# Entry
Amino acid sequence: MKDIKNIIFDLGGVIINLDLSLSISKFNLKSQVPFESIYSQANQIELFNEFDKGAISSEQFFKELKIKSGYEGSDIEILSAWNAMLKDVPEKRLDLLVRAKQNYNTFLLSNTCEPHIEAFEQKLHLDHGVKNFNDYFDKTYYSCRIGMRKPDRNIFELVLAENNLDPNETIFIDDSEQHVRGAGECGINSYLLPKNMELISLLNELNLL
# Structure
């Protein structure tokens, strides 16, 4: 790893603690369709992909989601259920990002949507007094703001091209296997962060710290 100059980090499940089961269980309280049949970490219906890419508004997304899932709760309840998966950002991970940025060019690459960005930025400010993640990375990429999402090849190529990165000198870390494969197809050194493994442990194993 001596030639590594750049690290691209995923957000949910890598930096932010994420628990999809919290959203699934909340939806299932008031949905006619089992929510896990339309949404999971490994697979999701096209509605979620379109929302990730910012191709539809929040209003359109929640309206269609009510139809697809047979959700019978209020608008406030469906937003709460959708955001329930977002948990905390431990202080030690923010400290780790500061360390990483001192030695590498660092980037954030996340499949996310505007309601989630608003929710995790509010929590980041409440818990840590930090407005957003911008100061922790050289650049942040949110799928809904650039019109593309992982694991599609074009999103990885965008990050490489915009920042003049050599994929051979670049590491990508994600908690989803399909995203790791997508980055690997672009020649990026890509690693899956196993569940229950801390980010610092993986970085240490890779001799990046």
Observations:
- Residues 20-83 form a domain with the DNA polymerase; domain 1 fold (CATH 1.10.150).
